[in-house]
Write a structure and sequence with these properties.
The protein has about 150 residues and is mainly beta. It has 2 domains: about 110 residues, no CATH class; about 35 residues, no CATH class. The protein is built from 3 helices and 10 strands, in the order ββαβαβββββαββ. It has a 7-stranded antiparallel beta sheet with strand order 2-1-4-5-6-7-3. Bound molecules: zinc ion (ZN). The site of zinc ion has 6 residues, from loops.
Length: about 150
């Protein structure tokens, strides 16, 4: 089973922030998801995290871009894994057993973000919103993280 994409029609003026799961048909989305491996594969960068790390994770900040169910082998056992993908090439996964819920994270890249100037952003064709705006680029994968610090 492939990942699912949230139908991103939320956030329009007058609408509420609801998302609906739809199949992934876009070639770019499919190629991106393929980089995280197949149904029985442990995703890249996969590591168990504590409940405290989970509570501080992007899971509670970002709307997931995709969700996926997988069955993977962990410690000689098949485990149902529920995966939540975020736009920044990272994800959170969960499994459950008789002892409770286990949390994991995974990622394509352990980003090394470096802030660039407005001029550098413009040279690269990246939007830069001015003085209170920050654009950071990952030195390893070109992921762009932009945010406004004006509050
Ligand atoms: Zn990166």
């Amino acid at each position: 089973m492939a990942g699912f994409l949230w139908n991103d029609d939320g956030g329009k003026e007058g609408s509420v922030m609801h998302y609906r799961l739809t199949g992934v048909h876009d070639k770019e989305d499919k190629e991106w998801l393929e980089r995280f491996g197949t149904y029985n594969a442990v995703p890249p960068g996969f590591i168990r995290i504590s409940e405290l790390e989970f509570s501080r994770s992007n899971f509670f900040t970002y709307m997931p871009k995709y969700v996926e169910h997988r069955q993977v082998r962990l410690n000689q056992k098949y485990v149902n894994l529920y995966m939540y993908y975020f736009h920044d090439h990272t994800g959170i996964a969960m499994s459950s057993d008789q002892q409770g819920v286990k949390y994991y994270k995974f990622f394509l890249c352990q980003h090394e973000l470096k802030e660039i100037s407005r001029q550098e952003a413009e040279d690269k064709g990246i939007y830069h919103g001015g003085t209170m705006y920050h654009v950071e680029i990952c030195q390893k994968c070109d992921y762009v993280h932009a945010y406004d610090s004006s509050g």
